Amino acid sequence: MSKPKRERSLAENEAKAVARMLRVSPQKLNLVAQLIRGRKAAAALADLQFSRKRIAVDVKKCLESAIANAENNHDLDVDDLVVAQAFVGNGLVMKRFAARGRGRSGRVYKPFSQLTIIVRQVEAEAAAA
Questions:
Q1: Which of 11, 48, 65, 84 could pair covalently with 60 via S-S, beta carbons 3.0-4.6 A apart?
Q2: How is residue 7 annotated by DSSP?
């Protein structure tokens, strides 16, 4: 016996991928996520390829995973995919200390983030508009 299947939270023309434990602050990750929101998947991949941000490599990997999920798991056409949503969440925060003057210490926060990308298949006419 197994658990009953859970209802699919996405529409039939959508697929998603989640990247967790990304070692960057959510604020910096959101700058890169804003680049790809609402863009066609191929254009978003090209933008990430030539972005100078360090975290763009991990965002590109997550987007490629979402595209692969759409193609292999949900039988969607890769050429008609659009980045419907790209949102950032908080992860854990490692707390470290740095030595300061006069024998004191200061806190250093090392934040982690998570990224969720949802791609949606749209018709060719709607994507061109």
A1: 48
A2: P
Q: Using one digit for the tens of pLDDT, what is the confidence trace for 36-50?
A: 999 999 999 999 999
Contacts of residue 67, Cβ cutoff 8 Å, sequence gap at least 6: 15, 41, 78, 81, 119
- Rounded to whole angstroms, the Cα distance separating 32 from 28 reads 7
Annotated domain spans of the chain: 14-123
Q: What is the strand order of the sheet 81-99 is part of?
A: 14-22, 105-121, 81-99
* Residue whose token pair is 């959508």: 14
Q: Please, which residues have CB within 8 angstroms of residue 3's CB and are 6 or more apart in sequence?
A: none
Q: Tell me the pLDDT tens digit for each residue of 55-109.
A: 999 999 999 999 999 999 999 999 999 999 999 999 999 999 999 999 999 999 9
Give pLDDT tens digits for 44-67: 999 999 999 999 999 999 999 999
| Tokens 């990997």, located at residue | 61
CATH placement of domain 14-123 = 3.90.470.10
Gap between the Cα atoms of 67 and 90, Å rounded = 24
